[in-house]
UniProtKB/TrEMBL annotation:
<protein>
    <submittedName>
        <fullName>Telomere repeat-binding protein 5-like</fullName>
    </submittedName>
</protein>
<dbReference type="InterPro" id="IPR029071">
    <property type="entry name" value="Ubiquitin-like_domsf"/>
</dbReference>
<feature type="domain" description="Myb-like">
    <location>
        <begin position="567"/>
        <end position="622"/>
    </location>
</feature>
<dbReference type="Pfam" id="PF00249">
    <property type="entry name" value="Myb_DNA-binding"/>
</dbReference>
<feature type="compositionally biased region" description="Polar residues">
    <location>
        <begin position="523"/>
        <end position="540"/>
    </location>
</feature>
<dbReference type="InterPro" id="IPR017930">
    <property type="entry name" value="Myb_dom"/>
</dbReference>
<feature type="domain" description="HTH myb-type">
    <location>
        <begin position="568"/>
        <end position="626"/>
    </location>
</feature>
<dbReference type="InterPro" id="IPR057625">
    <property type="entry name" value="TPR1-6-like_ubiquitin"/>
</dbReference>
<feature type="compositionally biased region" description="Basic and acidic residues">
    <location>
        <begin position="142"/>
        <end position="162"/>
    </location>
</feature>
<feature type="region of interest" description="Disordered">
    <location>
        <begin position="121"/>
        <end position="166"/>
    </location>
</feature>
<dbReference type="GO" id="GO:0042162">
    <property type="term" value="F:telomeric DNA binding"/>
</dbReference>
<keyword id="KW-0238">DNA-binding</keyword>
<dbReference type="InterPro" id="IPR001005">
    <property type="entry name" value="SANT/Myb"/>
</dbReference>
<feature type="region of interest" description="Disordered">
    <location>
        <begin position="510"/>
        <end position="541"/>
    </location>
</feature>
<feature type="compositionally biased region" description="Polar residues">
    <location>
        <begin position="121"/>
        <end position="138"/>
    </location>
</feature>
<dbReference type="Pfam" id="PF23603">
    <property type="entry name" value="Ubiquitin_TPR1"/>
</dbReference>
<dbReference type="InterPro" id="IPR031105">
    <property type="entry name" value="TRP_plant"/>
</dbReference>
Length: 672
DNA sequence: TTTAGGG
DNA sequence: CCCTAAA
C-alpha cells in the first residue's frame, strides 16, 4: 500500500494544477484556510503521547530514555480497527457531501499533562518528553499499555484516571471574561502574578470566542459556555452517549472529543480542508473478485477520502470530587518553572518563548494571572474521545467484495497510522505551533480557551513509513521542530499492514464512505449483516460513485453539520467535458433559472452535483465562453460547447427579459 | 427548498 | 465551491 499525496489538490482540497489561477473569490478564502492550516502544523509532546498510543500496540517505546531517539524503522504490525462510530444514522446531505466527517475516529483517549509541561520543540529538553508526565488512557484500548515507561495507562476506564491521585487539579482562572463565580473567585485568589510578561502567548490563541471562523473547535455547548460567563462553571456536559462528568470542579477538566461531532459551520469547514492523500490499494485478492454483483456495484471505484484536519472538538467536562486541590508545592513563575508535585516535572520556560508582546497586554495578563497560581500540581486533563483519521484515498476494483473493501479500508487506515502522523493542537481553531510552550503559556489551562482545544492527527508527509526515520519534512514541521524529530516519528514504522482487522485493536476509528451518488446499494444488506465487524457499519455509508466520471468515493464519517463545529469544504470536482455537455444540453432545453430541473434531468444520478453547482458551472461556462481561449484554465471545453453555451445563454436571457416584460411591463419600461 | 448572485 | 438573501 502506498500513500501518496495528491498532487492535484492543494492543501486545502482545492485543485491547484488545472486552475493555476484561483478565482478571486476563492483566493481570499484560501488564504484564510491556509492560515488555519498552517497554524496547525504543530507538534505537541502531549499529543505525541496521545498519538503514540494510537500508534503503538505493543512496542516498548523508550522515549523517556532518549528523547531525541530516532524512530525505529522496524516495528511490528499494527492493526487498527475501523469502526463506525455513528450512534445515530445520519441522512446524507447531498449538498454536504464530503463536507464533514470524512475522517475516522479512534477511541477516546485521556491525557493528563502538567500544565507546565513543554510543548515539544527544537529546544526541547528531555524533561519535556512525551512520556514523562502524560497519563494516557485509552478508553477502548487495544493499544500499547507500556509504550511509555512512565505513562500511567488506565485502559478501559478513564474515570480512574481522572481521579487518580497523580492528577492534580489545577485551579486558576484565566480570561478576561472570567466572571465571579464562586469557583472563579477562588481561582483568582490562588493566583498571583509575578511577571506577566514572562509568559508569552500568541495572540491568535486568544481570539475572541465570538469568532466562529477563528475558533471553530468547539461545539455548541462549549460555545455556550464560553459566551456565557455565568455558565462557565456550570454543568454543561450534555454528552449524548456518556455521562462522565457531572461535577463542575474548576480545578480539573476533561476534554473529550466527541465521536459524533457534527460539523455545521461551513465557513469553518472550508477553512479546514486539508491535504489529500491517496492510497493506492492493490491488495484485492483474487478470490474476492467478482463474487457478487451487488458488491461490485457497491464498490464502484475508488474510495476517496481527504485527509482532513481533525475537527474534533472537545467537550468541556467537569470532574467529580475526588479531585481536590492539592497542597501547594511551590511554583516559581518567575523562573518559568513549575513544580508540579508528585509525578510532575519541572519545565523551564525558555526565554525564546517568553517574548513579551506589548500588543497583547491583555493576553499577557491573562496568562499572568494563571502564572500566579501559587499552588502547584496543576494539571490539565484531556479526554480525547476520538480522533479522526485524515482523509485517505482508496482504490479498489469494483469487482472486489465488500469484505475486501473493508479490509482495504482497514489497511489504508492502518497504513496511514503506521505511516507516521503527528498530532496537532488547536486552540480556538488556531494551531498551537510553539512546541516549547507550556500548556499554560499556550493558553491550555483548565480555565479558559481550553474549551476550544482540539487535537488533530496529521499525516507526516512521508511517502512511506520508511521515511519515518528520515529527516522531517520541513513543511510539516515547525521552525523549532527542524532539529528534533516529530514526537510521533519515534514511533516505529510499520511496513506490513495487517490484512485483518482486529476488533479489539482500537475502538472506533470511523471511516465510512460518503454519499457520492444515489446508488441504491448504499444501504446494502451486506454491510448490515456484518455487524460484528467494526468496519461493517462503515459500509452503510458506502455508496458508489456516479457513472459520470467520478472515480472516487469519499470515505467520510456520516455526521450532519452542526453549528459551531468544524466543517469541511467539499472537495472540488471539476466538471468534465461530458458533464458540461450534459449541462449544456439540459440548459438548452430547460433554460436558465430552472436548475433544479436541470439537475434532475441531467445530473440526477450525480449526488455530488447540486443544482447550485450546476448553476455555478453554467455561470462559469458563460464566463469561459466569453473570454479568450488562452485565458481559460482547467480542462479545455470544446469550443463547440462554449458556443452552445453562449447561444443558449443569449436565448434564455432574452426569454427571461420577455417574460419580465410581460409580467411587469411598467417595471420593465422603467429599467429601459 | 430553490434561485440568484456575490464572494 | 461557499454563503445567503429572497422568494
Amino acid at each position: 500500500m502506498v500513500f501518496q499525496k495528491r498532487s492535484d489538490y492543494g492543501s486545502c482540497g482545492y485543485p491547484i494544477p488545472v486552475m493555476p489561477q484561483v478565482p478571486k473569490s476563492a483566493r481570499g478564502k484560501r488564504s484564510v484556510r491556509k492560515k488555519v492550516e498552517e497554524s496547525q502544523m504543530c507538534a505537541f509532546d502531549l499529543l505525541a503521547a496521545v498519538a503514540g498510543d494510537l500508534l503503538l500496540e505493543k512496542e516498548n517505546f523508550s522515549i523517556l530514555n532518549n528523547a531525541t531517539e530516532t524512530p525505529c524503522p522496524a516495528s511490528p504490525k499494527h492493526t487498527v480497527k475501523v469502526e463506525s462510530n455513528m450512534d445515530k444514522p445520519v441522512k446524507p446531505e447531498p449538498y454536504d457531501q464530503g463536507s464533514c466527517n470524512k475522517s475516522a475516529f479512534v477511541s477516546e483517549v485521556l491525557v493528563q499533562r502538567p500544565v507546565s509541561c513543554q510543548i515539544k520543540g527544537q529546544s526541547n529538553s528531555p524533561k519535556a518528553t512525551i512520556s514523562e508526565h502524560a497519563s494516557i488512557s485509552m478508553k477502548n484500548d487495544g493499544f500499547s499499555k507500556d509504550g511509555f515507561s512512565k505513562r500511567s495507562v488506565d485502559d478501559g476506564n478513564n474515570r480512574d484516571l481522572r481521579s487518580s491521585p497523580g492528577l492534580v487539579p489545577w485551579k486558576c482562572s484565566s480570561g478576561k471574561n472570567f466572571t465571579g463565580s464562586a469557583e472563579s473567585s477562588e481561582a483568582h485568589k490562588i493566583c498571583t502574578l509575578e511577571d506577566p510578561m514572562e509568559l508569552d502567548v500568541k495572540p491568535p490563541l486568544f481570539v475572541s470566542s465570538d469568532s466562529s471562523v477563528e475558533a471553530p473547535l468547539y461545539s455548541n455547548r462549549i460555545a455556550c459556555a464560553v459566551s456565557s460567563p455565568k455558565s462557565r462553571n456550570a454543568v454543561v456536559d450534555r454528552d449524548d452517549d456518556e455521562n462522565l462528568f457531572r461535577c463542575t470542579h474548576p480545578s480539573m477538566m476533561t476534554y473529550r472529543a466527541s465521536r459524533l461531532q457534527r460539523v455545521g459551520n461551513r465557513r469553518i469547514r472550508k477553512l479546514l480542508a486539508s491535504r489529500h492523500w491517496k492510497a493506492a490499494l492493490t491488495t484485492s485478492k483474487a478470490g474476492e473478485l467478482g463474487n457478487n454483483d451487488a458488491e461490485s456495484k457497491l464498490v464502484r471505484k475508488m474510495c476517496y477520502t481527504r485527509q482532513r484536519v481533525q475537527r474534533s472538538s472537545f467537550k468541556r467536562r467537569k470532574v467529580f470530587g475526588g479531585c481536590s486541590i492539592p497542597a501547594s508545592k511551590g511554583v516559581s513563575s518567575k523562573e518559568g518553572i513549575f513544580s508540579l508535585g508528585k509525578g510532575a516535572f519541572k519545565t523551564e520556560v525558555s526565554d525564546s518563548c517568553t517574548t513579551p508582546r506589548g500588543a497583547n497586554g491583555q493576553l499577557s495578563s491573562r496568562i499572568g494571572q494563571k502564572a500566579l497560581c501559587e499552588s502547584g500540581d496543576f494539571h490539565v486533563k484531556f479526554s480525547i474521545k476520538s480522533f479522526k483519521v485524515p482523509e485517505l484515498l482508496i482504490e479498489i476494483p469494483e469487482t472486489a467484495t465488500v469484505g475486501s473493501l473493508k479490509r482495504t479500508v482497514m489497511e489504508t487506515v492502518t497504513a496511514f497510522l503506521e505511516g507516521g502522523l503527528h498530532v496537532g493542537v488547536l486552540l480556538q481553531g488556531k494551531k498551537v505551533r510553539d512546541d516549547n510552550k507550556t500548556l499554560l503559556q499556550a493558553g491550555i489551562s483548565h480555565g479558559d480557551k481550553i474549551d476550544n482545544l482540539g487535537f488533530t492527527l496529521e499525516p507526516n508527509l512521508r511517502q512511506a513509513p520508511e521515511t519515518l526515520t528520515g529527516p522531517e519534512h520541513p513543511h510539516l514541521l515547525l521552525p523549532c521542530d527542524t532539529v528534533e524529530p516529530q514526537p510521533l516519528s519515534r514511533i516505529p514504522a510499520i511496513t506490513a499492514p495487517t490484512s485483518v482487522s482486529r476488533p479489539s485493536a482500537v475502538e472506533p476509528i470511523l471511516t465510512s464512505l460518503g454519499p457520492e451518488s444515489d446508488h441504491d446499494s448504499v444501504h446494502s444488506p451486506t454491510s448490515e449483516s456484518v455487524q460484528d465487524n467494526p468496519t461493517a457499519t462503515n459500509s452503510r455509508a458506502l455508496v458508489p460513485v456516479p457513472d459520470m466520471d467520478v472515480k472516487a468515493l469519499a470515505v467520510v464519517p456520516l455526521c450532519k453539520s452542526k453549528r459551531s463545529e468544524l466543517v469541511q469544504r467539499r472537495i472540488r470536482r471539476p466538471f468534465t467535458v461530458s458533464e458540461v455537455e450534459a449541462l449544456v444540453q439540459a440548459v438548452e432545453k430547460l433554460g436558465t433559472g430552472r436548475w433544479r430541473d436541470v439537475k434532475i434531468r441531467a445530473f440526477d444520478h450525480a449526488k455530488h452535483r447540486t443544482y447550485v453547482d450546476l448553476k455555478d458551472k453554467w455561470k462559469t461556462l458563460v464566463h469561459t465562453a466569453k473570454i479568450s481561449p488562452h485565458q481559460r484554465r482547467g480542462e479545455p471545453v470544446p469550443q463547440e460547447l462554449l458556443d452552445r453555451v453562449l447561444s443558449a445563454h443569449a436565448y434564455w436571457s432574452q426569454q427571461q427579459a420577455k417574460l419580465q416584460m410581460k409580467t411587469s411591463p411598467a417595471e420593465a419600461r422603467l429599467l429601459l
